[in-house]
Amino acid sequence: MSKVTVVAKIVAKKDAVGAVKAELLKMIPPTRQEEGCMEYRLHQDNDDPAVFLFYENWKTQACLEHHLTSVHFRNYVAAVESLIVEKTVHKMTEVG
């Protein structure tokens, strides 16, 4: 199977931006060490600091699925569950 690109948008509650950012930053080192993680980059919107975007590339869908069951990912989900207002995840395949 071909490489999977993930674009994930997370919108924090206005009073929880710092806490959400801290949890997102914690995700980066262990995720980058995972098998199949080719790229894992976090961005914060310049105009609305409550908006975060992950840009990820995974070797296979199986590698991504393994990430979604990892301890650090599950810990992140539990930590931010009540601190975010929106989460949108696009799993994509390059076509050109």
Written overview of the protein:
Strands 2-3-1-4 form a four-stranded antiparallel sheet. A hairpin with a 6-residue loop joins strand 2 and strand 3. By secondary structure, the protein is an alpha+beta fold. The chain has helices spanning 17-32, 61-68, 71-80; strands at residues 4-12, 37-44, 51-58, 84-92. The chain has three helices and four strands; from the N terminus they run E-H-E-E-H-H-E. The longest helix is centred in the N-terminal third of the chain and has 16 residues, at 17-32.
Features:
alpha+beta; 4 strands; four-stranded antiparallel β-sheet
Pick out the low-confidence regions. Answer: none
Overall mean pLDDT score?
96
In percent terms, what proportion of residues is strand? Answer: 35-45%
Q: Give the radius of gyration.
A: 13 Å
Main sheet summary: 4 strands, antiparallel
User: How many beta-strand segments?
Assistant: 4
Strand order of the largest sheet: 2-3-1-4
Which range best describes the helical content: under 10%, 10-25%, 25-40%, 40-55%, 55-70% or over 70%?
25-40%
N- to C-terminal distance: 16 Å
Q: What is the ordering of alpha helices and beta strands?
A: EHEEHHE
Net shape:
globular
Structural class by helix and strand composition: alpha+beta
Number of helices: 3
Secondary-structure topology with pairs:
Layout: E1 4-12, H1 17-32, E2 37-44, E3 51-58, H2 61-68, H3 71-80, E4 84-92
Antiparallel strand pairs: 1-3, 1-4, 2-3
Put the structure in a nutshell.
It is built from three helices and four strands, in the order βαββααβ.
